[in-house]
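Input/output pair, single chain:
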Amino acid sequence: MDLAIRGAIEAVSSLHPALSVLTTAWEFYATVKYSKAKCRSLIMRAQRVLYEVSEAMRENRCESSVSNLRRLESNLEFVRNTMIVQASMPFLKSLLRLDDINATLEEGHQNLTDCLVAFQIRSHVNIEKHIEEYESARREDAHELKQLCGQLVQNEKKLLLHLNIRDEDVPEAMLAMQRELTQSNLLSDQRTLIETGLVALQHSTRYEPPKETPTWAITYYDVDVDPGSELGGGGFGIVTKAQWRGLQVAVKRMKTNNTKALVREVETWIRLRHDHIVPCYGASVSADPPFIVLRYMQHGHLLQYLQAHPEANRVQLIFEVSLGLRHLHGERIVHGDIKGVNILVDDAGKACITDFGLAFKVESVRNDDPPKRAAGTLRYMAPELIQTGRLTYATDVYAFGMLIYETFAGCQPFAMELKKDVLSGKLVLERP
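Output:
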């Protein structure tokens, strides 16, 4: 970062938080490998914008309200996060996501323009210079990528080293590459490199490119996990915040590689469309570990929401869950694990059902199937579920009753009872 510009910005104390963000962005930019010229164009522009604002504030000729200062800091955080993602992006992902990268960088530039408009210092922005610089950066990056592609297709060993794909990640990479070849309008040099890369991976591993892929397949190469964005976790795995196709999403990474179970869950979930069911966008069964991509729900699960908003209308929330459950049963789907942590609350305060790991279509199970070990969460299980192991509409309704208790009591049903006593199926709850 230019020291003279830094000194000028430091003279305005209210810009110190924004300066700190920009300084971090520069640190990550130093390790960016691909689309580096375009990234340089964005971070240089961010530096100029912050300098323009500092000069205008010192001369008292701009609208430097608290909201505008926060907006400036937020826009610089976007630049910083873009640099963080680009700094950690491997070659193959940068190639497959070129359009997304360009869109993100252009969004960063637009944010900076909008920010200056908010500060009312339009006259200090040389738009033509910015456009010229960015186009020059695009040409520079395109030329470097073309040269690199030309070099790599001539040397299979060098290509594999550049791809740098772990053996366990090869199926996921092949899926992403195969889909790119069939669904995208690639430049000839990029297409040749991906085709050559697929062949090289076949030669060096035991894997073959997939012949068919489900329409809901989302790969590691499609999502960008937000830095420091872990939302929670449990026995199933970890949930993190991420970006996918311009949307903020939640990525649920599984602890086990039970492909069959994951496919069943996604096939059940992906078709459901209802205001009170969390949308599932897709999944990857070839990733290590596998993951599901869901809508990001700002307020977390129901118990977290009630703790943060004790004044919330609990009756309304329970009613919304009942609408989601009624829709599921209308679609002949048993959920199998209704409980507080499987109810998420969106930014509008609406309750939505999530987690379909135990869900199934009713016609897929016969009444004469032999009993099996009960699945679900013990303290929400109906006595007949404990005895027979069979999930039904009725066991969902029982679990819904336990959810009502949990919502109003603020704790799990039978929370203080011993496991063996709960398993007896003879306990009775008292109303809170």
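The chain has four domains: 3-150, 155-204, 220-295, 302-423. The CA atoms of residues 22 and 76 lie 6 Å apart.
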